[in-house]
Amino acid sequence: MTDDADARSAADVVAEEWHFLLGGTHDLVDVEAVRAAHAQPRLRLLFPLVGHGVLYFSGCTGMPAAHVGGQVYPRGADGLFRVRGPKGVGTLGRTESLEEAFALVVADLPEDCGPAVLGGAGRV
Questions:
Q1: pLDDT for the residue numbered 123
Q2: Average pLDDT, the chain
Q3: What is the pLDDT of residue 24?
Q4: CA-to-CA distance for 47 and 14, rounded, in angstroms?
Q5: Which of 103, 87, 88, 93 is nearest to 41 (CA)?
Q6: What is the DSSP string of 52-85?
Q7: Which long-range contacts (C-beta less than 8 Å, at least 24 apart) are formed by 89-97?
Q8: Is the pLDDT of residue 114 over 90?
Q9: 3-class secondary-structure state, position 98
Q10: 3-state secondary structure of 91
Q11: Would you list the domain boundaries of the chain?
Q12: Which of the ends of the chain has fewer CB neighbours closer than 10 A, N or C?
C-alpha cells in the first residue's frame, strides 16, 4: 500500500508549494514577486524555493535541489530589480518591474527545462 506522500505526483507537490507561497501567510519572500513568477507558465512547472528572501527554482521537488533558472533580487537602491543567473552567478540584467525580471529568468532557462520531478537532484 502506498502512503499519501508516495501517491502525490510531482505536479501536485509543485502546485502545493506555489499555493503556500502565493498565500502570503509567511514572511519568506515578497508575495508580489511570487505572483510575478507564477504568472510565467514555464516557471509554474518548476519547484519554487526561497532563500534569504529570494525566490529561485528547482527541477526537482526534493533535496538537494537542482537549481535551474535565475533569481530575482528585491528592488535595489537604484529602484531596479537585479536578475542573477542560476545559483546567483552572473547578472542577466536589471529591470523596472517584477514581470520584466521574471521574463528574463524564463528567457535564460534551458530549452529542456521542466517540469519538476519527484525527489532530489540525482533524479533530474
A1: 57
A2: 90
A3: 81
A4: 5
A5: 103
A6: TTEEEEESBSSSS--EEEEEEEPP-TTS-EEEE-
A7: 97/36
A8: no
A9: helix
A10: strand
A11: 4-118
A12: N
CA atoms within 13 A on the CB side of 112: 1
**Residues in a beta bridge with 82:** 73, 94
33 and 55 Cβ atoms separated by less than 8 Å? yes
Per the structure block, which three cell numbers stand in for 104?
A: 528574463
Q: In degrees to the nearest 10, what's the CA dihedral of 46, 11, 44, 19?
A: -110
Angstrom distance (rounded) from CA 120 to CA 93: 29
Give residue 25's pLDDT: 83
Q: Is the pLDDT of residue 34 over 60?
A: yes
CB atoms within 10 A of CB 6: 8
pLDDT (0 to 100) of residue 3: 44
- Residue range 85-113, pLDDT digits in tens: 988 788 999 999 999 999 999 999 999 99
